[in-house]
């Protein structure tokens, strides 16, 4: 069942690696050729708490655009960061963020992945939000398992 947990920044204190996408999908060969031409290490970002915010801010104008996978205009993006053909990894990520041909495959293609060797307890102090498909959330067993105070459910379409 695909679920995304949005954790409090204080929930993870020992960040090992950060990727701007699902590294498991990359290693399984599910990304397009323009991404797979490079190695996974080419996309590893600095293991810092502000890296996810910086990744999202670099490729998207707003958090709403990030959730809707609407990256910055390509020309604006290239100009803003003075990019050339020598910046292949960054340009490939921009392409991945806006590749509408992948929409039916996986909309998590640009979910920032944070890896840690730390055990994280998923409770009210560590989880700020849970993103779950409405089709799963409408199943009684799933909904009953998730402890959600009344009025704290927002369904985005």
Could you please describe the fold and organization of this structure?
By secondary structure, the protein is an alpha+beta fold. The protein has a domain of 104 residues. The protein is built from eight helices and four strands; from the N terminus they run ββααααααββαα. The strands form two sheets. A two-stranded antiparallel ribbon has the order 1-4. A two-stranded antiparallel ribbon has the order 2-3. The longest helix is centred in the middle third of the chain and has 11 residues. The protein is globular and about 50 Å long.
Topology diagram in text:
Elements: E1 3-7, E2 15-19, H1 23-27, H2 33-36, H3 51-59, H4 63-67, H5 74-80, H6 88-98, E3 113-116, E4 127-132, H7 134-137, H8 140-145
Strand content: 5-15%
The number of strands is: 4
Instruction: Give the overall shape.
Output: globular
Unreliable residue runs: none
Order of SSEs: EEHHHHHHEEHH
Mean pLDDT: 85
Q: Over the alpha carbons, how many angstroms does the gyration radius reach? A: 17 Å
Q: Please, what is the oligomeric state?
A: single chain
Distance between the termini: 19 Å
Q: State the share of residues found in helices, binned by percent.
A: 25-40%
Placed side by side, the strands forming the largest sheet appear as 1-4
Largest sheet entry: 2 strands, antiparallel
């Amino acid at each position: 069942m695909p679920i995304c947990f949005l954790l409090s920044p204080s929930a993870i204190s020992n960040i090992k690696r950060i990727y701007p996408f699902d590294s498991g999908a990359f290693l399984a060969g599910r990304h397009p050729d323009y991404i797979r031409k490079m190695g996974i290490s080419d996309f590893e970002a600095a293991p810092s708490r502000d890296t996810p915010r910086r990744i999202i801010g670099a490729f998207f104008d707003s958090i709403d655009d990030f959730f809707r996978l609407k990256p910055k205009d390509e020309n604006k993006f290239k100009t803003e960061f003075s990019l050339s053909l020598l910046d292949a990894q960054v340009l490939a990520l921009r392409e991945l963020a806006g590749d509408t041909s992948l929409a039916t495959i996986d909309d998590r293609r640009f979910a920032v992945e944070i890896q840690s060797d730390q055990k994280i307890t998923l409770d009210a102090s560590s989880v700020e939000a849970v993103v779950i498909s409405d089709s799963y959330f409408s199943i009684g067993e799933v909904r009953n398992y998730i402890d959600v105070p009344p009025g704290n459910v927002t369904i985005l379409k």
